[in-house]
Write a structure and sequence with these properties.
Blueprint lengths: L12 H15 L9 H28 L1 H27 L27 H15 L2 H5 L9
Helix pairs in contact: 2-3, 2-4, 3-4
């Protein structure tokens, strides 16, 4: 089993990185001082996609190379923690129309902003289910993400 991708495989990760860099360079210096809820939703979506990519790699690699798998699982846990903080930031951000801050208890309803514009809570709950199956609460709350072999 070869660890190098086939020559026809497309690697789109560098394009995603470039798009984020481009977005930051264009929008942050001259943009609003407060991050919009729409941007927080988009960033959360990006991190959840990254979580799923790392999860897929950790599952495959961990069987062949346990030490590399440990590092990928640790990275996956940290990405989920970042996504969880973005979700909390979303709920702490004021609504653009009224300026009010929604109670985080609106999250279980799934769409506190209304369909179909923002789906951060549905996405977060769907991914949280996967996270609970892949990690323990101790892993999620520890300052260190677990055993890393050398």
């Amino acid at each position: 089993m070869s660890r190098t991708p086939s020559p026809t495989a497309q690697d789109f990760v560098p394009f995603a990185t470039a798009a984020l860099d481009f977005h930051r360079a264009l929008n942050v210096p001259g943009g609003p001082l407060v991050t919009t809820r729409t941007e927080l939703d988009a960033l959360h979506s990006h991190l959840v996609s990254l979580y799923e990519l790392l999860d897929a790699h950790a599952g495959r690699v961990g069987q062949l190379l346990p030490a590399e798998g440990d590092h990928l699982r640790a990275a996956r846990t940290r990405i989920w923690q970042a996504a969880d903080h973005l979700h909390a930031a979303y709920h702490a951000a004021p609504r653009p129309d009224s300026g009010e801050v929604l109670d985080h208890k609106a999250c279980p309803a799934g769409l506190p902003e209304g369909a179909p514009e923002l789906t951060i809570c549905q996405r977060h709950q769907r991914t949280a289910y996967l996270v609970r199956r892949r990690t323990t609460p101790a892993d999620l709350h520890a300052p260190f993400t677990g055993l890393v072999r050398r």
